[in-house]
Structure formats: structure tokens, C-alpha cells
Amino acid sequence: MKGETALVTGGGSGIGLAIAAAMVEAGARVVITGRRETVLREAVCRLGTAASWYVHDVTDIGSSERLLGDIEEAVGEVTVLVNNAGVHLKKPAMDTGIEEFRVVLETHVGGAFALSRLAARRMIGKRHGSILFIASMASLFGIPNVVAYSAAKTAHLGLVRALAVELGPYGVRVNAIAPGWIETSMSRQALAGDPQRSQKVLSRTPLGCFGQPRDVGLAAVYLSSPAASFISGVVLPVDGGVSIGF
């Protein structure tokens, strides 16, 4: 990925940080964003001199243009965008309030689309670019107690298909990764106090274990690199076989 400038939202921890690390390792210049300055500073210390950070909330749509302009001035035009920022809500559907539902969709869908639209305009001009959405197993099948998250992550698949068709003629590829159960603080929160659910996850995972954040990072590098130059509009499960298991 030498010569690429990648923007990874929610890149300070978990899967986002692993994606940023894999892209740095592959030769890209990487910018990570998030809402917590301390987390971002610590992450960049780990990533090294090829990485930089900006505090940014993807739901603050009015600031997205300024963010991209600042990155262009300091690092270079963004050629790879990874829409990873998100929030999680674990609640039964009947207990999920409309405002809670809206916040989840606003982050995963509204914020990601707004940033993708602005980045795509720049990529179209260069006739080169890659946009990635970090989807979920909740994009592929029903999971209880995460109705807002499921709706948001399923919407990513529609965004991928529509954007891939519209942007493809301009040399811009759009894909998604659907991580399975990966060992992160978010997944631990989702499985907290529910040993039966953890066992159910493992029992239906053909590889019989949880994935690691780096597994997703390496898949993101692949989809953003010349190795995937003829791949667009796909959703790649990185799930140990969960999505095809029985």
C-alpha cells in the first residue's frame, strides 16, 4: 500500500487500530480518528511515524469537509477510507427506544455515508480510491438483542452495492468486511455475563475459536491494495466460517 493515504475512523482501539497497524505495516500513511484524544495519542505512539491522528466525531457531519482538508494539507489526499467508527447497543427490541435506535443509525450509517461521499468526490478526481465499510455478522443473519446495530450494519450492505455501482466507472472500489466474533472490548461487552451465548458462538464457528483484530486488519489491507484491483461490491466475511456453519 505504498503511496496510499488511509483514513480509519474509530482507529484508536480494537478492530480499527488493528486495521491501521496492518496498513502501516503494508506501507501506507495512516490517519486515525475518534472522539477520545488520549486514546488516539496512545495509538499513534504504537503505530509509529507513518501514522497521525485527529479528534473527530463522524456524526458531526459539518466538520467532515474540514477534516479531509486538514488531512490533505498535512498528509495527502485520502485514497483509502475505512468506515469503522461505531457504537454498540445491547437491548431487546421491545426495550430499545426510538432515540437510542436513531443514535446507532446516525453513527454507523449517516456518519459513514457523509464521509464516504466527501472522500469519493476526491477519489473520482484521481480516478483511484477504495472505500471500506466494516459490517458485521449482524449484517448477514438475525442476532437477538441488537436490533439497532443489526439495522445499521445491514444498511452498510446497501451502501456498498449502490456506491460500488455508481463509483466503479471512476476507478473507485467499494467493499465491506463482515467480522465474525473477534476478541475486542466491544465483543467482550456484548458477551458479558452470557456464557451460554459465548458457547453458542464457538459451537457454530467451524474453526472453533474467536478471531483476532489483526485478522480483520489483514483483510482490509487486501481489499484496499492492488491485489484486489478487480474486486468491488463484495462483503468479505472474516469469521472462521460462522456465516456458512451449521
How would you characterize the overall build of this protein?
The protein is an alpha/beta fold and 246 residues long. It has one domain (5-239): NAD(P)-binding Rossmann-like Domain (Rossmann fold, 3-Layer(aba) Sandwich), CATH 3.40.50. Helix content is 46%, strand content 15%. A seven-stranded parallel β-sheet has the order 3-2-1-4-5-6-7, sandwiched between helices. Strand 1, helix 1 (14-25) and strand 2 form a beta-alpha-beta unit. The radius of gyration is 17 Å and the shape is globular. The chain starts with a strand and ends in an 8-residue tail after the last strand. The model has no long low-confidence stretch (mean pLDDT 94).
Enumerate the spans where pLDDT stays under 50 for 5 or more consecutive residues: none
Major β-sheet strand ordering = 3-2-1-4-5-6-7
For the record, the count of structural domains works out to: 1
Molecular shape:
globular
